[in-house]
Each structure stands twice: as structure tokens, then as C-alpha cells.
Hints:
Layout: H1 4-12, H2 16-30, E1 35-39, E2 41-45, H3 73-85, E3 90-94, H4 103-116, E4 120-123, H5 126-135, H6 140-150, E5 154-155, H7 165-171, H8 178-190, E6 194-201, H9 207-224, E7 227-234, H10 252-265, E8 271-272, H11 281-287, E9 294-297, H12 304-307, H13 316-325, E10 329-332
Helix pairs in contact: 1-9, 1-10, 2-10, 4-6, 5-6, 5-8, 6-8, 8-9
Amino acid sequence: MISRQEALDLFRSDDLIGIGMEADAVRRRHHPEGVVSYIIDRNINYTNFCTEYCSFCAFYRPMGHAEGYVLPNETIYQKIQETIDLGGTGILMQGGLHPDLKIEWYEDLFRGIKQRFAIHLHCLSAPEVTNIAEVSGLGLRDAIRRLMDSGLDSIPGGGAEILDDEVRHRISRLKCSTQEWIDVHRTAHELGMRTTATMMFGCGETIEQRMNHLERVRNLQEETGGFTAFIPWTFQREHTALGRFVKEEATAVEYLKTLAVSRIYLDNFDNVQSSWVTQGLKTCQLGLRFGGNDVGSIMIEENVVSAAGAHHRASEEELRRIIRDAGFTPKQRDTLYRTYFLN
Length: 343
């Protein structure tokens, strides 16, 4: 593994191609078979009510707002059935931090889903789990254990943004702290649950603060081995309050360099995802030669990033094409990155 200082030197280097080649070598070491994976799943946002008022978010609505909603269970069941009909294997379900939805609401929902469908529930985020524990008067471990017992299979890395409290205070002052995010994922790992790590960058943070994030997830992975993948993406400024202060979004070059440095530095992660949602299909495709071995989901439904101005769309056919055109074999995977599908 390279050191923090060596990673900082890579960030400051102008040798984009050299960094990409090194990341590609790390990718080949982890995935010598030349396969790039993708998943068919659906993002379901069960509520947009939220009490956190994050400046980078254009999706949330304050409590009592006329455009706020909590989806009925039957609506969620219908969305899951549509996902299964399209060949989907997982549901990524997240929402705002709702002060009135206690753990019993989630237990009822998850049990109802598992009684009806054979599907992987990759749901909530560290801030949501922390909020559920707090409003339910529970400790973190008890809350996660109860959610697991009711059907939660894994936890996405959402809510990480940049794991540096100075940045978090600036862009998401009310959201969980760096330590709270880490505590949720560490506790989930200790209970035998896998999770993902994410990073939303380009929101005015320094390279050192970006490295703080990478160092924290690398250290936790070294401790627990519980992360399945690392997924970096760029802040989308359109329609957001923070966008008034961040005048330019991260470029494709900055995205590819960050992706590559992440792949090199996070050598204890098996999978690093190249994102098309914020950068588009062409940059995503380039990312497969900058360390990425996965292109994420076709995203049957996505509301949060698109509310902030990301307008890219992709079908399964398109994702398979860009993977093939980059020189790889496309394979559908499940949420835990098992590529046992025949196609």
C-alpha cells in the first residue's frame, strides 16, 4: 500500500496517464479475469422529509412542506415488483431523516418486503440509522441488529460526503459526524453485515481533506474487512444552496484522477466503482482504465442526484456496450458483488 504522502503527491501530479496506468495495474491485480460488473436495481426514496437541511441537497423537503411525502408500503411493494420484472436483484432504499418514523415503521416495511419478495435490501445510510436509533431511544448496535432481523441485508455508504468534520460543518452541519458515520459501518461489520463506502467530492474541500476521507475508510477496512466497494462521485451543484459557493463542478480530469488515486490508495478494497450518473457514460468508460471494475446500476429510478442537476441515463444494453468497447467482459452482479449470473 502507498502512504498518505505518496497519495497526496499523486493528487498534485500532472501525470494523469501515468496515474491511470498505475491504477489499472492495481485493478488487474484484484480482477485479472478482465470482467467489469454492473447491477440491475432500483433506488426507492421512501420519504423526502428531512430535518438536516444539507446545503448540497436539492431533494429534501422540510417537515410540513406541501411537496413532502412518505410512500405507503403498497407503493413500495409495487416498485419492487416492477424491479423484479425487469431482472432486478436488489433495492437501494433511502430517504430523509424523518423525526416521526421510529424503528417499528422500518421493521414493518422490511418484513413486509421479505414476506413478498426474494430481493436484497441495501437500505438506509449512516445518518438514517443514527436518526432511527435516536428517535427510537435505542443504542446503535441494538438498532442495527433489529433492522437486520427484520430483513435489512446491507447498508450503502450514503451520507459520507467528505469524512472530515470541518467540511461536514460547512455543507451538512446537522448531519452525523465523521465518527458517527464510521461507528455505524464498524458496528454493522461487527454484526456480520457488509456495507459500501462512498465519497462525494468537489464540494470545496481541500486535497488534504479528501485524503482524510480515504485514510479513514482504508483504516476501517483494514480493521473489519466489511466494505464491499468504494464509490466516488462528484458534487452536482445545480439547484443546490451550496452551488452558489462552489462555482465549478469537478471536471472529468479531476474525477478520473480521484478515481485512480482511490484505487491505488485503497488497495484493501476489492471493488472500486466508476460512476456514470454524475460524469456520463464516456467518462465512466474511461474510468475502467483508471482503476474502476464496476459501473454501478442502470438505476431504474433515481431522484436525489437528478434533483441536483445530473441528467444522465443508461440502459443495461448501454452499460454492456461501454464495458465491451473498453475491452472488458460485462457481467451482471448482485449487491454483494457476486457475478454468478450467466450473462
